[in-house]
Structure formats: structure tokens, C-alpha cells
Amino acid sequence: MDILRIEKLKKHFPIRRGFFQRTVGWVRAVENVSLAVAGGRTLGLVGESGCGKTTLARMILRLLPADGGRILYKGTDICGFSDREMKPLRREIQIVFQDPYGSLNPRMTVGQTIAEGLRMKGIRERRRVREQVERLLELVGMAPAAVDRYPHEFSGGQRQRIGIARALSVEPSLVICDEPVSALDVSIQAQIINLLKDLQDRLGLSYLFISHDLNVVGYLCHHVAVMYKGQIMEYAPAEEMFENPLHPYTHELLAAVPDPGTGKKPAAAAVDREPAEAAAELPEGCRFQSKCLERDDRCRCLGEDLTRAGEEHYVRCWRA
Questions:
Q1: Cα–Cα distance between 139 and 118 in angstroms, integer?
Q2: Strands 307-308 and 314-315, how do they pair?
Q3: Under-70 pLDDT residues of the chain
């Protein structure tokens, strides 16, 4: 059963210029995105910086309003929910941020930070709060003695563990991981990824894992969605995606993955970066056509829906 289902979600941002800040165009940051996260499973969302991954996460958390489409959490459309209606759901949907230090209050001890979530659950007795905080710290591999220390006293990996403990304090069902290891050293990345995997097995958590690192996504995720300029280009089980990629953009992403033996990137680099303004001047049909070596007239006639290319494999390309 899907714990989260997104149907044709849209988000457009106005481009304003001049003294009076008139709207002269729109950036279509998220366009007709449909995804699903199954209970106890991990969906990886990959793509280069600026493709709309974080915007999508903020819409799921209702930090940004959607301009169209539906967000179904446990079968209920939450797009029209007020702040009051969203309050109980915020305990069930948590996020782990990219910057572990920026997401923690430097003036609060680790214990005070984690205790905020426990108080939301109604746990207020001081002794019980401390016991729960220490239990959560042990759950993420931290010593209970960390409860009285401040974030600046810890390394980046330890801070991320504290951030995960804070997210777990309200016993969520769905955790959105927004590039949680990209700011960490490679050796520490492996520890955090293994921690997330272990917590999922022990607690039955569901993850939406946002990343640009395909090696991490291939190890942790059950399904993968590839995003480019606000649209999903390809969606498939992780093993199928890596063994049989169909979209040219997915091929380019995989070609840019460093060799595990040497750590060097191949000669064929990934897609060139474009200025943000280019997002307002998108072609009709496939958004990747200007960079695709196999484009033809059919690329301009693609509809909004993905084409089914296998049992659980979908792609936005006529070649499929």
C-alpha cells in the first residue's frame, strides 16, 4: 500500500522585472509530477541541482502551496488542508535536511532539541523526557552523554545523527531525506546510509530520498525517479533502472558516475548546467530535447504522461 501518492503536481514561480515588479513570465519548477512511496520502502528522487527536487519536497510538507494536482497521504488529499489540519500530520511526515549544522539551533542542547518533538507527543515529565532522549540517541548510534552538549561540539556526521534522532522523536511514518549525506565525508556518508537502512528495517519507516548521487541511491532505494527541469523523465525499480536505463538523460547521469575503482569521472561528463532563466523558456514536449543526440520531430509532440515500458518501468521518451 502506498503511504504517499502524488498526482500531476504543479508549481510555477513568477518572474518579476522592472520598478513595479510586473510578472513577465513563469518558471515551471514542477510540472505534472506523479510519484508513489510504498509503506516501508524507499523512493529515490535523483537529478541535477535546480531540477525541482527540493521544491517538490517542500510541497509535500506543505511549506509551499501547490498550483495544481493532488498529494495523497494515506489516501487523503492534503493539498487543501489548513495549517490547523496539517498540524497533526507534521508529526507523521518529517524531514532530514542537507546541512546538519544549519538545521540545529546552536543555542539549544541536544537534549532540548530532541525533547521538543517528545513534548509534541504529550511527554512532559522531566525524567521520562530524558530517558526517551537518551533512548533516541542510542538508536542513532550516539552516546547518552551527548544530551547536555551543544551542536558545535560534534562533527558533521554526529550532527546528522542528532537531526535524525529529532525527526524520529515524533514517531513519523514518512521521512523526507533531502540530500542528507551530500555535505559529509565519503566514509561518514556510508555510516549514515547504513543507519537509515537499519532504522527502516527496525521501525518500518518509508523514505523519500532526494539525492544527486546515483551510487547512494542504488544502494538504499527500492524505486528510482529521474527528474529533469521539473518533470519526471523515468521511473523504475532501482535494479531495473541501473541495468536497463531507457531515457537519454538517465544514460547521461549514469555515464557521469565516477568509477568505483579509480574515483575518476568518465570523459563524457553529465549534462551541461544552464542558467536558471532557461527554465522559463522550455520547449514543447520533452524538456531534454535540446541536449539529446537522438532527438527528432516526435520529441516536440510528447504528451504529459509517461509511457509504460515494463511492469513497473515508465519513461518520457518516444524511443521506449
A1: 15
A2: antiparallel
A3: 259-281
The residues with which 28 forms a beta bridge, in sequence order, are 12
Rounded (5°) CA angle 178-242-2: 55
Cα torsion 96, 101, 102, 105: sign: positive
The number of angstroms, rounded, from the C-alpha of 165 to the middle of its chain's C-alpha atoms is 18
Instruction: State the amino acid at position 269 in one-letter form.
Output: A
Helices 110-120 and 126-139, packing angle to 10 deg: 110
CA distance 250 to 47: 9
What pLDDT shows up at residue 318?
A: 81
What residues does 26 pair with on adjacent strands?
14
Alpha carbon 299 to its chain's center:
28
> Is 11 in contact with 27 (CB distance < 8 Å)?
no
Tens digits of residue pLDDT in 105-145: 999 999 999 999 898 888 888 899 999 999 999 999 999 99
Sign of the dihedral through C-alpha 268, 270, 275, 280: positive
Instruction: Read off the pTM.
Output: 0.89
Q: Grid coordinates in use for 309?
A: 515500458
83: number of CA atoms within 13 Å, CB side? 2
| Closest among 211, 216, 207 to 242, alpha carbons compared | 216
Phi-psi domain of 87 (left: phi exceeds 0; alpha: psi -120 through 50; beta: other): alpha
Stretch (H or E) spanning 16: strand 2-17
Q: Where are the alpha helices (DSSP H) in the chain?
A: 53-60, 83-86, 110-120, 126-139, 156-168, 186-203, 214-220, 238-243, 248-255
Q: Write out the three cell numbers for 19.
A: 520598478
Output the CA–CA distances (angstroms, integers) from residue 169 to 154, 173, 185, in the order listed.
20, 12, 26
CA-to-CA distance for 135 and 279, rounded, in angstroms?
46
Bridging pattern class, strands 42-46 and 223-228:
parallel
Residue with cell 515494463: 310
